[in-house]
Amino acid sequence: MSARKLLLEGLSDAVGFVGGAVAGYWIGQLLGWNIFSAGYNNASIGAILLVGLGGGGGLHLARFWRAKQQQNNDKA
């Protein structure tokens, strides 16, 4: 694999994961769930879950985007 392709893979994974995690954080904030509250109540556990799911979903979307880009490059 070329260095450029590896860099694109790493950067897109990072952007997807962080973007998804931030989106999960803000969804939790809109629901009134504080990930940083003292102790582990149901709201903070739900917020942690949203951040984790958002990060995983963003990573999945980044990989899906890369696969689509590869298909388009193969067709051309």
In short:
By secondary structure, the chain is an all-alpha fold. The protein has two helices and no strands. It is elongated, with a radius of gyration of 16 Å.
Describe what you observe in this structure:
- With 76 residues, the protein is mainly alpha-helical.
- It has a domain at 15-66.
- It contains 2 helices and no strands.
- Helix 1 (3-31) runs antiparallel to helix 2 (42-75).
- The model has no long low-confidence stretch (mean pLDDT 93).
Describe the secondary-structure layout:
Elements (H helix, E strand, L loop, with lengths): L2 H29 L10 H34 L1
Helix pairs in contact: 1-2
Protein name: AtpZ/AtpI family protein
Keywords: Membrane, Transmembrane, Transmembrane helix
Portion in helices:
over 70%
Q: The biggest beta sheet, please?
A: none
Question: How does the overall form come out from the CA principal axes?
Answer: elongated
Percent of residues in beta strands: under 5%
Give the radius of gyration.
Answer: 16 Å
- Termini distance? 20 Å
Q: What is the overall pLDDT average? A: 93
Helix-strand pattern, N to C? HH
Protein name: AtpZ/AtpI family protein
Transmembrane segments: 7-28, 40-62
Keywords: Membrane, Transmembrane, Transmembrane helix
